[in-house]
């Protein structure tokens, strides 16, 4: 059975703060962000809108890409989001 890993970017309602993360269960992780289940950076800035994600089969590739995105500029993150989700819609309900 193949295991999948996800990198994701979440933001707040006004799209002013971006957070990049990696997880093995995207649905559960975004659920935790939305429900503020864990005290974290995302709670402090009300980050609960999933605007970008990508699936990987290799955990090391996912972690490497997360680090690359985090090290990039805000403009690069915004460009990544716009290319994937031009309307900055919350993608959580599209996850299966």
TrEMBL record:
PROSITE patterns cross-referenced by the UniProt entry: GIY_YIG
Domain GIY-YIG: 3-79
InterPro entries (UniProt xref): GIY-YIG_endonuc (IPR000305), GIY-YIG_endonuc_sf (IPR035901), UPF0213_domain (IPR050190)
Pfam families: GIY-YIG
SUPFAM superfamilies for the chain: GIY-YIG endonuclease
Family recorded in the similarity comment: Belongs to the UPF0213 family.
Protein name: Excinuclease ABC C subunit domain protein
Species this protein is from: Candidatus Woesebacteria bacterium GW2011_GWB1_39_10
């Amino acid at each position: 059975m193949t295991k999948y890993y996800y990198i994701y970017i979440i933001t707040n309602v006004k799209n002013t703060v971006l957070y990049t993360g990696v997880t093995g269960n995207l649905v559960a992780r975004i659920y935790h962000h939305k429900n503020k289940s864990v005290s974290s950076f995302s709670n402090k800035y009300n980050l609960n809108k999933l605007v970008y994600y990508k699936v990987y089969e290799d955990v090391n590739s996912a972690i490497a890409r997360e680090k690359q995105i985090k090290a990039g500029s805000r403009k690069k993150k915004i460009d990544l989001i716009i290319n994937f989700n031009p309307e900055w819609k919350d993608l959580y309900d599209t996850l299966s």
